[in-house]
Every structure is written in structure tokens, then in C-alpha cells.
Amino acid sequence: MFSRASSAWLRSLKSYLFFLILFNVLWEILQLPLYTIWAHENYQEIVYAVLHCTAGDAMIGTFCIVLSLLFVGTENWPYGRFREVAISTILIGVGYTVFSEWRNTTVTHSWAYTSAMPTILGIGLAPVAQWIVIPSLAFWWAHRRSIR
């Protein structure tokens, strides 16, 4: 019923999203000491923040790949334009992250960095790296699974 290309598309998308969510929850836990919540909130608030941020990461990652597939993907993705979709997804994710970090730390003050957070122009480098490293690895993983 499904062609090889459509099953590869679905397998690649599922692999990408599974890897993205799994490693975002780990990243969120590891970067906690870079945010003031680590020192100023109780355990329940920290757990909630990790789960809330991971859910946000999942939504952002899903939105980014869907947008990329719509604008630069082809019907035979992942066999065609895989690299273009990956690069587009990462750029959209980084762009959103820079805006979100700026807005939440400067405008709304929803969260704050500790002095341990490396920054450029007031933007935390850990969350920016998160949206370069994790999607890159997720695409690598998805590509490995799609060529089977």
C-alpha cells in the first residue's frame, strides 16, 4: 500500500522526532545550572520546568521540520533534498531560539541566566548550541534509518 519512499519519509520523521525529544530532555537537565531556576526553585518546580521546556522543544522541533519540508522538501524526501531540509530546520530553530531567549530574558524576564551561562549580546549560547547539536544529530540518526 505504501511506497518505499513514503515509508522512508515516515520512518525518517519519526526517528528525527524521537531522537530530538529524547536528547532535548537530557539537554534541558544538563543545562539547568546555567539558569537561575536551579538555585531559586524547589524540586517540583525544576521538574515542571524541564518537562515544560522539553514539550516546548518538541513543538518547536516539529514546527521547524514541517515548515522546512513544506518549503524546501520534495515528495521523495528523505532521498531528495535531505541536506536542505536539515539545514533549513536548524536555521529556523536557531532563529526562533535567539528570538525566544532574547524575549524571555530581556523583555518578559520569564527566566534568567546564571553567571555560568556563556552569552553573546545577552543571548545564552547553550540554548543556541542545543538547536544546532541536537537537530544535527537527530538528522544524522534519521538519515541512517532512512537508507536501510
Can you summarize this structure?
This protein has 148 residues and is an all-alpha fold.
Written overview of the protein:
This protein has 148 residues and is mainly α. The protein has helices at 4-30, 37-40, 43-72, 82-107, 125-146, and strands spanning 119-120, 123-124. It has five helices and two strands. A two-stranded antiparallel ribbon has the order 1-2.
Strand content: under 5%
Instruction: Return residue spans where pLDDT drops below 50 for at least 5 consecutive residues.
Output: none
Biggest β-sheet: strands ordered side by side in the sheet: 1-2
Shape: elongated
Main sheet attributes: strand count, strand direction, barrel closure: 2 strands, antiparallel
Using brief descriptors, characterize the structure shown.
148 residues, mainly alpha, 5 helices, 2 strands
Helices and strands in order, then pairings?
Elements: H1 4-30, H2 37-40, H3 43-72, H4 82-107, E1 119-120, E2 123-124, H5 125-146
Antiparallel strand pairs: 1-2
Helix pairs in contact: 1-3, 1-5, 3-4, 4-5
